[in-house]
Amino acid sequence: MFRKPVPPPTADDADKPSPLRARISKQVAAKLARNPMVSRVENPKIELFARRAFLDAEECAGMRALIDAGAEPSKLFSGTQNPDYRTSHSCNMDPDEPLVRAVSGRIAALMGMDASYGEAIQGQRYSRGQEYKPHWDYFPVNDTYWPYMREQGGQRCWTAMIYLSDVEAGGETHFPYAGFMVPPVEGMLIVWNNLLRDGAPNPDTLHAALPVKAGTKFVVTKWFRERPWSSQD
Fold it and tell me: How distant, in Å, are the alpha carbons of 76, 117, 138, 231 from that of 228?
């Protein structure tokens, strides 16, 4: 059946309802809900799913080594926050590295997302005392970087995060508006929808990486856009 191409979003509609983004949200949620290995966190404010043992211990160790090799002080899109807002170390992981390519493909397959919609995986390392204060993964249209993000693939729809290590104390992923937190468990994948059912951004997805109190936290994150992602570094 012929489908009329969906035009790229205009410069000011990333914060409004979108049939395109609503369709993506519905399809991914349905795919995850059908998987008996995936559980849903029952919460009225956010769609969040979890898959334990998504990566095994050897894969987690391999990803941690890659992060250690490339980690630099984490950066923010906007320069409005103070330097203490995000204190971790991070790196964009080489998509051609065999382990990274395999993990990226498995995430997309689990979610039923076209791999071309996914950004490169980002690795993050949090040492004792390091954190990422409350933030959203979707893009606010009033920030200076939105026009660039719009051309690069548009709004972020889904976030996939894998914990690569247990943490002795602290380091939870906290969703303050939704009223719960997720403790790091090595190998566990969590996936959440950054949007409401109508495709508009969901403010209740505000989340934070709480400070690590003991140990070291490693995670990788992959974001999926509303259109194919095109890196323009």
Answer: 22, 4, 16, 10
DSSP 61-116: HHHHHHHHHH-EE---S-S-S-TTSB--EEEE--TTSHHHHHHHHHHHHHHT--GG
Least confident span in 1-15, 80-94, 139-153 = 1-15
Q: How far apart are CA 87 and CA 85, in angstroms?
A: 6
- Of 106, 130, 133, 131, which Cα lies nearest the Cα of 118? 106
* Residues paired with residue 111 on neighbouring β-strands, in sequence order: none
pLDDT digits (tens, 9 = 90+) for 40-50: 999 999 999 99
Spell out the alpha helix ranges (H) of the chain: 19-34, 57-70, 98-111, 146-152
Q: Which residue is it, tokens 């630099």?
A: 72
Enter the DSSP assignment of 119.
Answer: P
Q: Quick check: 12 pLDDT over 80? A: no
Give CA–CA dist 111/32, Å, rounded: 6
| 3-state percent breakdown (helix, strand, coil) of the chain, nearest 5 | 25, 25, 50
Structure tokens given for 230: 């095109």
| Residue 92 CB coordination number (10 Å) | 14
pTM strictly above 0.85 = yes
Nearest CA-CA partner of 118 in 164, 157, 145: 157
